[in-house]
# Entry
Amino acid sequence: MTDTSGPRLIIVCGLPGSGKTTHATALTERLGAIRMSPDDWMDSAGINLWDAETRATIERVQWELTQELLRRGHTVIIEWGTWGREERDTLREGARALGAAVELHYLDVPLEVLWERIHTRALESPPMTRLQLETYAHTIEIPTEDELALFEQPTYPDAAF
# Structure
């Protein structure tokens, strides 16, 4: 197990239906961490989950809050999907500048399983289409071994899917 003393940022990366919320929630309980999820905030406020501008604003606010929590020595879990390498690099570098360790948990789930989960849970309103999911699957920049090497090993290796 990795040393968990001091501030730590855990970035959970994956497509819709990959289990990000389940994974992040379990880690939150195990580590006593604070979880940042724009979906939760948007849902609580009755905001359409597809409102990209509002999502970007919420993520910006959550990142500011995350940085303050890291400065205070907390463990924070970002559950944004983080589909782009540049976004993950920015989060990693920003957290490291504050003295935090940074983990990346990439949840790799086959497209058919993703679609079944999304279709079964029916959480999104309006519902996600199969075409949207396929587009997302072609959009995500899957972390490479070189990128993964830039992060600390997961605190709980068995927790990474």
User: Anything to note?
Assistant: The helical segments are 20-31, 38-44, 52-71, 85-97, 111-121, 130-139, 145-148. The radius of gyration is 15 Å. The beta strands are 8-13, 34-36, 75-81, 101-106.
